[in-house]
From TrEMBL, chain A:
Keyword RNA-binding attributed: no
Species this chain originates from: Sandarakinorhabdus cyanobacteriorum
N-terminal signal peptide: none
Annotated family: Belongs to the binding-protein-dependent transport system permease family. CysTW subfamily.
PROSITE patterns the UniProt entry points to: ABC_TM1 (PS50928)
Keywords per UniProt: Cell membrane, Membrane, Transmembrane, Transmembrane helix, Transport
The ABC transmembrane type-1 domain, residue ranges: 212-419
Gene Ontology cellular component terms for the protein in this record: plasma membrane
Chief location bin: membrane
Protein name in the entry: Phosphate transport system permease protein PstA
UniProtKB/TrEMBL annotation, chain B:
Protein name: Phosphate transport system permease protein
Transmembrane intervals: 49-68, 132-150, 170-191, 233-254, 275-296, 316-343, 364-385, 434-456
Family: Belongs to the binding-protein-dependent transport system permease family. CysTW subfamily.
InterPro entries named among the record's database cross-references: MetI-like, MetI-like_sf, Phosphate_PstC, PstC_N
One MF term in the entry's GO annotations: phosphate transmembrane transporter activity
Membrane topology, as annotated: Multi-pass membrane protein
ABC transmembrane type-1 domain: residues covered: 235-452
Cellular component per GO, a single term: plasma membrane
Length: 430, 464
């Protein structure tokens, strides 16, 4: 425009052309700003949606449906001799009794719903009788867990309006459930089995207790290996490492290990710890060592930053009054750097707790129906339990998977919040 | 369990050694009139010196026995039966030994393998003997080391310097673990890959277009000789991790970073940054579950609505989309760092010239921060192609060479998991191919990481 003008004149900002140009630029500015806000909103709403679907599917996993049954503790059905029960080892006799037969007997009283009780319902009978042996021969009313299908029906997880062959539940089961409802024999209670039990093929019996304990064992190994190694090597790199090839090599290794895909650590665990060292497969020991190698770089990097942030004047003062270099580090620098080190460690542990891929390769996907017995016994961990259940075709496992995710997320959020809190509260700016 | 007791015993004895050393040094100090400096080091250091000399050899021995002991015991136990009736090394042998251990511990009422009940008593006896031997050796070493250290305590003995030298060695050893891990990874991948490449030529592996790792289980089986052309896997990995995921993560992550650094009020920023960090802290198995259960059916119904009758329920799009969301916080924080590193004078200069914020961002800030942003994106790509759980749960196993996002593709990590979690002999080409895939994945991510870190570092130095 300016080239056609004969002489230089100041821009006429009031002219329609300039005004529309300014308007266009401001419009572009507004649009760009909205775009940025939209990107954030999309990212945040995705998180919200993810949490929403998991809470929606998962909260009912913490509840279970129980049915009321009337049981007569008939000694004949139980296969026990009443005289032996009142004898010296009466408890042992009662513990060995045939509660399954008693349960089957009691289930007959449910009429059309006789097949709706869980396979493990007899455990409730045993606990009841063992707690009070005087009940033998008496009639009691008991609440016992029902099968997963009935549980899901009671929770409204089936679309009953759908045609019978596509809704995933048979007419007989629906009829049994309706009968139980009409009789007022159903109630919903807290699912303590979900938090206490180990895995099971029956959704109503499966729990995360075993996996949680497995996670605890695995993390124990991870922490006792990764924390000292990480802190000590950070100290060496920051305070002692002579400039040279060795320090460069270590630094390069740590930076690369921090970015190596986690599954590669699983390959290392499989090839080295299992096949060469012959450590027990599926055990928290191997899982813990593998995860420790994986999170060690995270701890080293965080600890180095924290150590570097301690001002040199602290070191100089300590050296000045006669402390040796080791005393300077362990009595002055490390205590001051500890909040930063702890933050990095907690973040690393949270990562180890949520990790699945390397553990898949060292066999921690084993189906373990018992809580792990020790550091070398087969075990599974929480995220692995999520993975295993998400693969299961039985419908009852959908809510279990989401409920297990909820537990995992609550623990992880608590850990991360603790890390952020530590960082904000204790980190000093010098 | 015995090993734990042995460790506890050794630690307790070392504690005694510490107390003894400290007491002797204290006595020496008193004998010299309690004057500071009469004994070179403080009693604590003398005690620590004695304890270290006692502890180190014994612990090394016990640790070595803990790692190798089981193998030695198994070898001895198996050597007692005829070679012909021994199971082949690998899962069979592990299963047998597990049964033997179960019988010994009493967890297992009945063994399947007829050999197990025979071996169980021998195993128990061998284990008891050898464990006892190792424990006794450890205690003997401990006593020898402790006594030697104790005998060296003199007023002029420089215990503190010795202990500090030992601590330095400990620090160095801890640092070397990182190198050992790297070497361990490289060596184990390379050794297994070499064994694989003896069976399948590297050229076929790297350029072949057909992937079907099912090898014949019996020699006379027809039709499944196995094809190990990994190109469809590489393509699937790049398609999901570097194309679809990045198409989601780069715009969203970059725009979030721009908004957070340039527009957002400090208060909003204080709230939103932790939310993004939270998104990064969600375990990948959760994303995988979400992708498989919630996103994949939606993607499939969209494909059906678009007229694709053979729409796959494990489409590349579902896995890629969710992976992209997972990467957003990563891209965002890298871009955040890069944008904050641009000198404020450049931004202020542009604004002072009358440019709007968006013009400043587009024409000044982003070009100036570009190397840093690109470095961050490369790191994000490296993380995406190594990501496992999302693709294991949401992507398929069919090795298709297609650019249709609604069809199913498979990735390197999915195949590694699929190949190594089935029941397979460890020496077959099928199992070994997982390590060759791992090697390729390791090399790819290593190159990306080194290059990206170098780019980011050079960029930071340019503005410092």
């Amino acid at each position: 425009m300016s080239s056609v003008l004969p002489e230089r004149r100041p821009t006429d900002w009031a002219s329609p052309a300039m005004q529309s140009r300014i308007a266009a630029r401001y419009r572009a500015e507004r649009n760009f700003r909205r775009l940025g806000a939209a990107a954030l909103v999309i990212a945040a709403s995705f998180l919200a949606f993810l949490l929403f679907t998991i809470v929606r599917d998962g909260w009912s996993g913490f509840l279970r449906t129980e049915a009321k049954v009337e049981v007569t503790f008939t000694p004949a059905t139980l296969g026990v001799d009443p005289a032996a029960v009142s004898g010296p080892d009466g408890k042992a006799v009662l513990a060995r009794a045939d509660y399954l037969a008693l349960m089957n007997e009691a289930a007959k009283g449910l009429g059309p719903a006789s097949g709706t009780l869980s396979d493990a319902a007899w455990l409730g009978l045993r606990d009841q009788l063992l707690a009070d042996p005087a009940l033998l021969g008496k009639r009691v009313t008991l609440w016992v867990p029902v099968r997963s299908t009935i549980d899901l029906l009671a929770k409204g997880k089936f679309d009953l309006a759908a045609p019978a062959d596509s809704r995933g539940v048979s007419d007989r089961e629906v009829a049994a459930w309706r009968w139980l409802e009409q009789q007022g024999r159903l109630r919903t209670g807290f699912n303590s089995a979900f938090l206490g039990n180990a895995d099971s093929t029956e959704p109503e019996l499966a729990g995360i207790g075993g996996a949680a304990l497995g996670s605890l064992f695995t993390l124990f190994i991870t922490i006792i290996i990764a924390f000292p190694l990480g802190v000590l090597s950070a100290v060496w790199l920051e305070e002692y490492a002579p400039k040279g090839r060795l320090a460069d090599l270590i630094e390069l290794s740590i930076n690369n290990l921090a970015a190596v895909p986690s599954i590669i650590f699983g390959l290392l665990g499989l090839a080295f710890f299992l096949n060469i060292a012959g450590l027990p497969r599926s055990s928290p020991l191997v899982g813990g060592i593998t995860l420790a190698l994986m999170i060690m770089p995270v701890i080293v990097i965080a600890a180095r930053v924290a150590i570097k942030a301690v001002p040199p004047s602290i070191r100089d003062a300590a050296l000045g009054i006669g402390a040796s270099p080791i005393q300077v580090v362990f009595q002055h620098v490390l205590p001051l750097a500890l909040p930063g080190i702890m933050t990095g460690t907690i973040i690393g542990i949270a990562r180890a707790l949520g990790e699945t891929a390397p553990l898949l390769l060292i066999g921690m996907r084993a189906f373990v129906t018992d809580v792990p017995q020790g550091l070398t016994a087969p075990a599974t961990v929480l995220p692995m339990q999520v993975f295993l259940w998400s693969d299961d075709v039985q419908r009852g496992f959908v809510e279990k998977t989401s409920a297990a995710i909820l537990v995992l997320l609550v623990i992880l959020i608590a850990m991360n919040s603790l890390a952020i809190h530590l960082r904000n509260r204790f980190e000093r700016r010098w | 369990m015995r090993l734990v007791i042995a460790f506890a015993l050794v630690l307790a004895l070392a504690g005694l050694a510490y107390l003894a050393g400290r007491a002797r040094a204290q006595r020496l100090t008193l004998a010299a009139g309690g004057r500071i400096g009469a004994v070179h080091s403080r009693p604590v250091y003398h005690g620590a010196y004695v304890a270290v000399l006692a502890l180190a050899p014994a612990l090394l021995l016990l640790a070595g026995w803990g790692v190798m002991g089981e193998g030695v015991i198994e070898g001895r136990v198996l050597a007692t039966v005829a070679a012909a009736s021994q199971p082949a090394p690998g899962p069979d042998r592990d299963a047998l030994m597990n049964e033997v251990r179960g019988l010994v511990a009493g967890d297992l009422p009945q063994a399947f393998n007829p050999l197990a009940p025979v071996l169980a008593p021998r195993y128990a006896a061998t284990k008891a003997n050898l464990d006892l031997l190792a424990g006794a050796l450890a205690v003997a070493l401990l006593c020898l080391g402790g006594l030697w250290g104790y005998s060296r305590i003199r007023p002029d003995f420089r215990a503190r310097n010795r202990v500090e030298a030992q601590v330095r060695v400990l620090l160095l050893v801890a640092s070397v673990v990182a190198i050992l891990t790297t070497f361990g990874i490289v060596l184990s991948l390379i050794f297994e890959s070499i064994r694989f490449f003896r069976l399948v030529s590297p050229v076929e592996f790297l350029t072949g277009l057909a992937w079907s790792p099912q090898t014949a289980l019996r020699a006379d089986q027809v039709g499944s000789t196995g094809a190990f052309g990994a190109v469809p896997l590489f393509w699937g990995t790049i398609f999901i991790g570097a194309i679809i995921a990045m198409a989601v993560a780069i715009p969203l992550g970059l725009m979030s970073a721009i908004y957070l650094t340039q527009y957002a009020q400090p208060r909003l920023r204080r709230w939103l940054k932790p939310v993004l960090e939270l998104l990064a802290g969600v375990p990948t198995v959760v994303y995988g579950f979400f992708a498989a259960l919630t996103v994949a059916p939606v993607v499939r119904s969209i494909a059906v609505a678009l007229g694709m009758s053979d729409a796959s329920s494990d489409s590349a799009l579902a896995a890629g989309l969710v992976m992209g969301v997972m990467i957003i916080p990563f891209v965002s924080s890298m871009a955040d760092d890069a944008l904050t590193a641009v000198p404020r004078a450049m931004r202020d200069g542009s604004l002072a010239m009358g440019a709007t914020m968006s013009e400043t961002v587009k024409k000044v800030m982003v070009p100036a921060a570009l190397p840093g942003i690109i470095g961050g994106v490369l790191l994000a790509v490296s993380r995406a192609i190594g990501e496992t759980m999302i693709v294991v749960m949401a992507a398929g196993l069919a090795a298709n060479l297609t650019a249709n996002p609604f069809s199913s593709v498979t990735t390197v990590t999915t195949q590694i998991v699929a190949l190594l979690t089935g029941d397979q002999e460890f020496d077959s080409a099928k199992t070994l191919s997982a390590f060759a895939l791992g090697l390729v994945l390791f090399a790819m991510t290593l190159v990306l990481n080194i290059y990206a870190l170098a780019v980011v570092k050079r960029y930071r130095e340019a503005y410092e």
